[in-house]
Fold:
Amino acid sequence: MAEAKVDGLLGAGAGVTVVSPALTERLASWATEGRIACHRREYMASDCDGQHLAFSATDSRAVTGAVAADARRRGVWVNAAADPRSCDFLLPSVLRRGRLQVAVSTGGASPALAARVRRDLESHFTPEFEDLVELAAKVRHELRATARRAARRRQGAAPRPARGRRVRPGRWPTSSDGPAASSLPWSR
Structure:
């Protein structure tokens, strides 16, 4: 459980410090690589000093309670995977396919069920969706650029001035400039 939380935090660009007397092989590898800071010992109240968020990923209610109490005294938000009542915030289970993100939450009722639903969604949102999202983004960008160019062309085509009047650059007729001007699309 701690490994998945750390992986998600690293993916979001967070700086992560893990406090635990024992580490999984993957966490130990990340510590060796310098991707995470690590204190191989039991939790201490001072571990919350200077933090913005605290995660308790242990089955020990005593440790979770201590983390929650110490963090709150310091104004640090807490997420306790095994005890939603100790949480100040919840994290959804997230399926990522490039820029496509699908989040699933049970509001803390069953993180395992949320993870199961996310895994089920993986068969629908296959890795090819990453390319589809990039294609959709490119098409959207091109459509918006085309719309902006068309709007600029419409604004640049000066309306015919009323008889005997000249339209000065930068000043367009408004509804107060005569009855015909009020029917123009940009005066509405």
